[in-house]
Structure formats: structure tokens, C-alpha cells
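Q: Here's a chain of 198 amino acids. Please give me its 3D structure as C-alpha cells.
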Amino acid sequence: MSVEHKDEIIKASIIKAAENLFQKWGLNKTTMEDIAKASGKGKSTLYYYFKSKEEIFDVVLMKEMNEVQDAVRKAVAKETSFETKMRTYVITNLNEIRKRTNMYSIVKAEITMDDGFIKKLRSIFDTQELEDVKEIINFGIRNGEIKNFSAKEIATLAHIILISFRGIEMDLFIEHKFFDDNEKIDNLIDILYNGIKK
């Protein structure tokens, strides 16, 4: 086994142990000693790979958010129309967030203590999400389902769509308002689609 492979295995075990602790206790109540004990590693090993528990927390959150985006992209890729791709994009996003409610409630608690925390997380994924939505819009144009927009109009439309969907995300993420059905999402997609279809 190569040194790099061994390092990745050790880091993965630390991250997994930390993820479980963060979900249970949050960032502030979890210590590096807790993470070391839960991962079966010494504190010196933790500090060899990570500068602080905050750095581990960032890695855990990035892992969670990457998993959400991967699941969304795979689900969207299976759809064959603009309308179903957009609906799948939103519903899969929300379902993936639902699956991770423990971690997101911890993040919510941390956000209340650090107002810039959510901005930092959002800025990391804003560009990627905008590109994903622009690709769905471009697919709809290529497929002849929606109007032919300029690159500037596509960027504006993608931004407006993301803002709308983030309002729903915030209901889940901050207010814990879970939808028993997808009526609001359906209404939003219908309004959007009817406004831009050919």
C-alpha cells in the first residue's frame, strides 16, 4: 500500500468519526481529543493531517455538499426534458438536504454564532450551481422547449431560478419547514416553464 493511499484511509477515518461527533454534539462541543478517541488515532496524528477541528468541520461540510451536488447531477442527467430536469434538480436537492437534517441543524447552530459562515459555504458552491442551472436552460433551448435566450439572459435567468429555489431551501434549512408534498415546487416550476416555453 502506498503512503498516499494510507494517508487517504487515515484521513477518511478521521473525517467519518468527526462527522458522527459533529452530528451529535456540534462543532463547539466537539474537541480534537474526542475526534482522536472516536477515530482510534492519537491527537498528534490528527494534528499531522488537520490544523484544527474547524478545518475538519469544513472538510465534513464540503463532503456533505459535494454528495448533494453529485446526487442532483446524476438524477438530472437521467431526465429527457427541460421541465423534468428542472423539477428533478429542485426535488433531488431538497430530498438530499432532508437526508442530512442532523448535519444541517448543526450548521444552523454554528451560523447563528458566525454570520459569515453560510456566506463562505454558499460562495464555494454558487458558481457550480449556476453552471448546473445554466446547463439545464441550455438543454431546454437546444431541445426546442424554451425560448432562445442570449448568454447574458441565461445567466440572469439561472440566477433568478437559484434565488427562488434557495427560498425553499431556507425553509428547510433554517426554519425546518418540511413539505409533505411538492405543491410549492410544482407551482414554481409551472410558473417558470410557462413564462419561458416556446
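Q: Can you summarize the key feature?
A: The two ends are 57 Å apart (CA to CA).
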